[in-house]
Amino acid sequence: MSKMLLTYFYFLGLRTLTVIRDAEVMIQKQHPDFSMDAISYEDSAVFDMLNRGETQGVFQMESAGMTQAFVNLRGRSVEDIIAIISLYRPGPMESIPTYIANRHHPDQVKYKIPQLEHILNVTNGCIVYQEQVMQICRDLAGFSYGQADLVRRAMSKKKHEVMEQERQHFIFGSTEPGRECPGCLANGIPREAAEQIYDEMLSFASYAFNKAHAAAYAVVAYQTAYLKCHYPKEFMAALLTSVLDNTSKIIEYTGECHRMGIGLLAPDINESELGFTVQGDKIRFGLLALKNVGRALIEAVIEERKTGGKYKNLYNFCKRTHGMEMNRRALESMIKSGAFDCIEAKRRAMMQALEHILKSVEADAKKNLDGQLDLFAAFSETQAEEETSFEDYQIPDCTEYPAEVLLQQEKEVSGLYLSGHPLDRYRDTMAQMRSTPIAMLNAEDAHEYDNQEVTLFCTIVKMKTMSTRSGGTMAFLTVEDLTGSMEVLVFSGVLQRFGECVRDNAVAIIKGRFSFRENEGGKVVAEQIFDADQYLQTQGKDEGNKNPKNKLWLKLPSMKSEIFDDVRNLLSIFEGDMPVYFYFEDTGKKGCAPRNMWCVPSEILYSELERVLGKGNVIVQ
């Protein structure tokens, strides 16, 4: 279109904009004067939160790599967010360590030639934005604005022939009509320096943002961070509503709610709305997140509740919603989720009485439609009395489903365990083991953990088997822990050895190796699989006797060093119940860290700490 001299506009729709709007609406219910247009963009509490690595749900900053980059930068402004968003891309990413080092030590910034200083001093000596590429072309080689933009476009589109032609113009200049420019050599810039500068621009510009694009993203990132910092319940409710169709994300974000101390209330037919909402200091599960129920149906149910008052019991609900395309599957989903627990006693009793209630409601509807008594009522005065008083019908009592069945039913219809989690009773044990949070293996920078050994403490949600060419059987497992879900690949040899531990809904400990492929994402290749209870009674118990309390010892140069800040931020990301001990070389002092700096045992955490502190300075004992 540009060749036809036509202007075109590119509109990028972001789910996050809906999150911000929905959160704002919820906040205004308690604070009518609140407006996102009036927030401060220099709020120190927001940047303190980002510098603690608390970035889940923050636009563009959720990945562990982006989080750590901003933590290392110790950013204090929206300009810092703009820079990190621009740098955290293939190509420019290589400049992040230099950018951060130069930021903290401005006296060490070096420029290839003095003419670059006024262009790059605002970005700590690094090329960060496309506009800087254009300015270098103009100031060093004398390009016009149009010529400089041609270079930018050629680099971003990877047009190698044009890029090589522009290299010659950049270094030697051009006398071509309409393309006249002196070039770097004519402006007194050595050829070697000009070549290096052009190569640096070349490696950078193909993935670079223009600053306006990065600034727009940074504003949205800051707005989400502001909401999470000051209105966490409203923000997390809006965030959860935005991922209703993504169970893995719902698990991840409800886990973040747990970390933040925000409770999650189960669905409630008399309290829940379409999406997730704030109720008191907790978040109420949205009815639209349940399976087998549609938006139109839930909207009708909520509207009936507003006009006719709260539902009294299951029969009252079925009668009032008859004709709303309410079907048995939808009712069963709501029962299994616990949505009727507020008006009926036991889910098993509701499931057993459901058919009888539906038949009675249908009979009432036909009777009203025909304008006459039900055929059977003419012969049975007793039955007529029963039907007339069915509004007060009491569902027969019975024994409730076992707790594990209730949890599995909740998982079946909502994707989550709502009244608890099969792993809840293992929380202390998980904190003592070197288990890997699945959320870390689902992060955007998960490729960094490729080929690392991992240990998953998880539930087996689903199992799929297939035959191999050699006649064996292999399995694909979907597993889940308290932070997320992922796939585990079990080859035939491993399945043959540990097959008795591989079954649906089993709580398992899986040891293996993480494998990441660009087009497939990450999965764990299992090497050993254990039933969790059996493992803890045998190997786990023996290990516990040998080492009853795991401790993490970290050797640091000083408490006042920048390294200490890096370590503290890493520990905050892996917060857990494993005691952390410090030894400071400058004073010789040692001791246990505060409780809020204890961590979850994790091989990934240990490797990250070794990267910061060096091998031999991270010891688990």
TrEMBL record:
One of its GO terms (biological process) is DNA replication. One of its GO terms (molecular function) is 3'-5' exonuclease activity. Residues 16-175 form the DNA polymerase III alpha subunit finger domain. Its EC number is 2.7.7.7. Residues 464-529 form the OB domain. It comes from the Bacteria. Residues 261-349 form the DNA polymerase helix-hairpin-helix motif domain. Keywords: Nucleotidyltransferase, Transferase. InterPro entries: DNA_pol3_finger, DnaE2/DnaE/PolC, DNAPol_HHH, NA-bd_OB_tRNA. It is an enzyme of class 2 (transferase). PANTHER family: DNA POLYMERASE III SUBUNIT ALPHA. NCBIfam families: polc. This is DNA polymerase III subunit alpha.
